[in-house]
Structure formats: C-alpha cells, structure tokens
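Quick review question:
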C-alpha cells in the first residue's frame, strides 16, 4: 500500500513547463481554439441529419460518427447523397474526420470527412461540415458543391458553442490555490506554468495519467519519498 501511495505521489509531482497550444484537435470530436473548448460529439445524431439540396439530392450525415442512413454507401460512411427518383447513392466521406477552427475567430468548428466514392475523373469525394455556434434549435442550413466532388454543409446549433473553458488562476499562497467544479477535463492541457509545481502541488481523489500524455514536462518528475 505504501509503495502504491508513493508511486502515485511521485507521479503527481511535476516540475517544468506545460505548454498549451493555440489550437488543437484530438482523434475524438473535440477542439481547443483561441481559449475556447468544444466537444462536438453532442451533435451526433443516430437518425442522421439531413437536407435536400438544390440539386435534388438528399444529403445525410452524422457528426464524428458513421451515419445510419449512409450504411448502404459504405462501411463507416459519415455523409452521403441520395437521388430519390433513381436509386443513386454516393458516399461523400467516412467517419475518420479532422476537426479545425472556423476562420476569423467565428465560434464553432469544421469537420472534414475524406475517402468517399471516387468521381468519374478520379477525384475522391470529400465533405466539410461547418458547425456554427448559434442560438435556438439545431438547424442544417445549407449544402453546396464548392468544387468538383467537394461538398460543404453548414449547420447552426447551441451544441456547437464553447463549453466550460479551461480555467486559469494564479495566487500567492493560501490553500486551495486552484480548484474547479467543472466537469472532468480530458485530452487538454489545463495547467500552464513557466515556473514549478513542487511538493503537494497537485492532489486529486480522481485519476491522473489514465492514458498517455496526461502529464508532460521538459523537466524531471521528482519525489523525495
Ligand atoms: C484515418 O486517417 C488517418 C490520417 O489521415 C490515417 O492514418 C488512418 O489510417 C485512418 N484510419 C482509418 C480507419 O481509415
Ligand atoms: C476533375 O475535374 C475537375 C473539374 O473539371 C477538376 O477541377 C479536377 O482537377 C479534376 N481532377 C482530376 C484528378 O483530374
């Protein structure tokens, strides 16, 4: 028991620099951009989102997951188009997305799905889904072909707005120098310091280091126990 405790204690001592990136995305459905934290997985829709395009194709899609409606167009298809009068269907991208910030500091994020069906001249279909932070109901606003076999879908939703921002605090002494009552924070750097954290600088009744990279340091991890 003592051994486990001192191991845990050692792992809690972090000395060095924790660096926060301006914008980052992980393999999930999250984005940290300009201090705003997003988790777009709240926009996942088991029944698929849909919109009828001016080209008379119905477009179906899901957020960061395969779309049930698109299963016929390919395993893991996240976005697809159907031409109803005929049974014409195309896979417009699979759920192996990249997530990036919107331009000009607009709140929300953009998902890019690649590896759809191949067009007649060899271009591989792909789709960008722009998720704009907005009030009111979640709405699919538009779909357009932005260039040959490349599609852009826009949607607006409160679920595309920033959620609990990582907290920053600095204090000079006292107890409980840093605390949060927010939800658990995963896959983001929430403590940034060019100084040091020493002694019992970090304590938790939760878990730390449940996957790789949760604690990073360019210094050492030190324990005197
Ligand atoms: C997902 O995309 C990444 C990078 O584009 C690629 O390395 C990986 O093999 C892809 N995974 C699947 C399951 O297609
Ligand atoms: C396919 O055609 C489009 C439109 O004419 C063109 O922009 C694109 O470069 C072509 N792609 C290939 C791989 O030839």
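Suggested answer, residue by residue:
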């Amino acid at each position: 028991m003592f051994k486990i405790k001192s191991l845990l204690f050692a792992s809690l001592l972090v000395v060095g620099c924790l660096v926060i990136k301006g914008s980052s995305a992980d393999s999930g459905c999250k984005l940290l951009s300009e201090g705003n934290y997003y988790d777009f997985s709240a926009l996942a829709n088991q029944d698929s989102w849909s919109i009828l395009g001016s080209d008379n194709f119905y477009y179906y899609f899901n957020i960061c997951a395969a779309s049930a409606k698109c299963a016929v167009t390919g395993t893991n298809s996240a976005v697809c188009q159907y031409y109803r009068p005929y049974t014409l269907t195309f896979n417009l991208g699979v759920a192996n997305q990249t997530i990036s910030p919107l331009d000009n500091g607009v709140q929300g994020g953009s998902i890019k799905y690649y590896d759809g069906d191949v067009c007649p001249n060899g271009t591989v279909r792909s789709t960008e889904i722009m998720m704009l932070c907005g009030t009111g109901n979640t709405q699919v606003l538009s779909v357009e072909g932005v260039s040959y076999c490349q599609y852009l879908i826009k949607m607006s939703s409160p679920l595309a707005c920033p959620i609990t921002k990582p907290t920053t605090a600095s204090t000079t002494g006292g107890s409980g120098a840093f605390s949060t009552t927010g939800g658990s924070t995963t896959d983001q750097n929430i403590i940034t310091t060019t100084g040091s954290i020493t002694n019992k600088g970090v304590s938790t009744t939760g878990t730390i280091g449940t996957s790789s990279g949760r604690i990073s340091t360019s210094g050492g991890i030190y324990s005197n126990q």
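Why it works: The helical segments are 2-12. Residues 96 surround 2-acetamido-2-deoxy-beta-D-glucopyranose (ligand 1) (CB under 6 Å).
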